[in-house]
Design goal:
Layout (H helix, E strand, L loop, with lengths): L1 H26 L2 E3 L4 E2 L4 E3 L5 E4 L4 E2 L4 E3 L4 E4 L4 E2 L4 E3 L5 E3 L4 E2 L4 E2 L3 E2 L13 E2 L3 E3 L4 E2 L4 E2 L4 E2 L4 E2 L4 E2 L7 E4 L4 E5 L6
Parallel strand pairs: 1-4, 2-5, 3-6, 4-7, 5-8, 6-9, 7-10, 8-11, 9-12, 10-15, 11-16, 12-17, 15-18, 16-19, 17-20, 19-21
Antiparallel strand pairs: 13-14, 21-22
Length: 190
């Protein structure tokens, strides 16, 4: 009898806290799809103007940080964002397609400091923010950095530790600092 009562009380507490969570998420401009997984240590920070949208069946594992800084972060369906990855949404924001795999310790930042005037401190010169688009079925290896203005084409693979500074054609395999194309995943018909 006591165990049944404990289970009912626990269920009521879980129901209450999940309703509270959904209310807070709506107030913070966060939209979550069906059957998502959000680890307890993941951070979703929308500040006053930002928006975060997470698709169906998408997983954000421990220590993942999504920070909009006034922009937006949109993540598609069936994506895996692995531990300690940081995704920013400055300005034009970050768009991640469906079925994207992002390994641990990646950083995706759609902004860069302006530093054209040496007489003015860099931090006072503002930001350049062109956004980032990662198309469907892309795999980012561990520790990849994706920088402002980049579009990564569908089906591409970015090798561990690469720094992507320029847009990537679909089905490319990229590696290095800065990342260069080492081959294509598609065979060329003669």
């Amino acid at each position: 009898m006591l165990r049944r009562l404990q289970k009912k009380v626990r269920h009521i507490i879980l129901d209450y806290s999940s309703k509270k969570l959904i209310k807070n998420l709506a107030a913070k401009r966060i939209s979550l799809g069906k059957n998502y997984f959000l680890h307890d240590t993941a951070i979703l920070d929308t500040d006053t103007k930002g928006v975060i949208v997470i698709g169906d069946y998408t997983e954000l594992l421990q220590g993942v940080s999504l920070m909009t800084y006034g922009g937006s972060i949109r993540i598609g369906d069936n994506c895996n964002i692995n531990p300690y990855t940081v995704i920013y949404g400055h300005g034009s924001g970050t768009i991640i397609g469906n079925n994207v795999l992002i390994a641990a310790h990646c950083v995706i930042i759609p902004a860069n400091h302006i530093f054209s005037t040496p007489e003015i401190p860099i931090r006072m010169q503002g930001l350049d923010s062109n956004g980032i688009v990662i198309e469907d079925d892309v795999w980012l290896g561990a520790g990849v950095k994706v920088l402002n203005g980049v579009r990564i084409g569908r089906g591409s693979i970015i090798a561990a530790g690469a720094v992507v500074t320029k847009s990537v054609q679909p089905y490319s395999i990229m590696a290095g600092v800065p990342a260069i194309k080492i081959r294509s995943r598609k065979k060329i018909d003669n």
